[in-house]
Design a protein that fits this description.
Layout: E1 13-19, E2 28-34, H1 57-70, E3 73-79, H2 81-87, H3 89-107, E4 112-116, E5 127-131, H4 139-162, H5 171-174, H6 180-189, H7 213-218, H8 223-229, H9 237-240
Parallel strand pairs: 1-4, 4-5
Antiparallel strand pairs: 1-2, 2-3
Helix pairs in contact: 1-4, 2-3
């Protein structure tokens, strides 16, 4: 079934969706997109917009470019793991959505919000509708799901680059979700400062992962001082051996 370009053609709608509610680690992301009511002329050159979960990473990246070039307005935001632990994941997801909507509102004021899911905390005085599997029904929601997913996954990649010790959790393959390697690593090593401590699998011991040698050097003017301060042991010998 093809996606709809709008719910009501007589109003300016913004679609919103979130990504990474089920992750054990890191931020929850949300995006908001105002999509044109007519299909963009260059759409045939790109994969069809659809629920981000049904797209390969390569197609999501291609569609990110297409969406950002053709949307009337868009924004991506997030809530941190600290906010998730403080508020709970549902409230933090809503906070991320509200932040994205507020960014869009400052670009182009809209009339109505359409939301993926069955729950939404009202944003200011805007009217809204919720739709289960909304990212399979409306272009604007599907576009928001794609942007949120791409930005979330880039955040995870950047985090592992800065903190290489996260690789032991298989983060680059599971993107923070509770896959087997991630769960086994939590049992073996405990959780890091980036894990969501209020999630049941993450309630155990904690240790702090350190930045890689490149990132440490980038943060100081004295490379020799950093290398001298590193403790050489089984856990970080690879960090300084290359």
């Amino acid at each position: 079934m093809p996606l709809s370009l709008y719910l009501n053609k007589d109003v300016l709608e913004v679609g919103t969706d979130e990504v990474a509610r089920g992750c054990l680690l890191g931020r929850v992301y949300a995006a908001a997109v105002i999509w044109p009511q007519e299909e963009p002329p260059d759409s045939s050159y790109y994969p069809p917009i659809r629920d981000s979960k049904k797209l390969t990473p390569k197609k999501r990246e291609q569609l990110k470019e297409f969406i950002e070039a053709n949307a009337i307005a868009f924004a991506v935001s997030y809530a941190t793991e600290q906010e998730i632990d403080k508020l709970n994941i549902l409230a933090a997801s809503q906070l991320a959505m509200h932040r994205a909507l507020d960014k869009v509102r400052k670009q182009v004021d809209f009339d109505h919000i359409i939301v993926d899911g069955n729950y939404f905390i009202p944003f200011n005085t805007y009217t809204f509708n919720t739709f289960e599997k909304g990212d399979d029904k409306f272009y604007s929601i599907a576009a928001a799901s794609i942007l949120a997913k791409v930005y979330h996954d880039q955040y995870i990649k950047d985090l592992v680059t800065e903190y290489p010790d996260l690789e032991k959790y298989g983060i680059l393959s599971n993107m923070g979700y509770g896959a087997s390697q991630h769960m086994k690593a939590i049992e073996k090593y405990g959780v890091t400062q980036f894990h969501r401590k209020t999630f049941k699998p993450c309630c155990g011991k904690q240790f702090t992962v350190k930045k890689g040698i490149k990132e440490l050097i980038d943060d100081t003017d004295n490379e020799a001082e950093i290398i001298e301060d590193l403790e050489i042991n089984d856990d970080n010998v690879d960090l300084v051996s290359t």
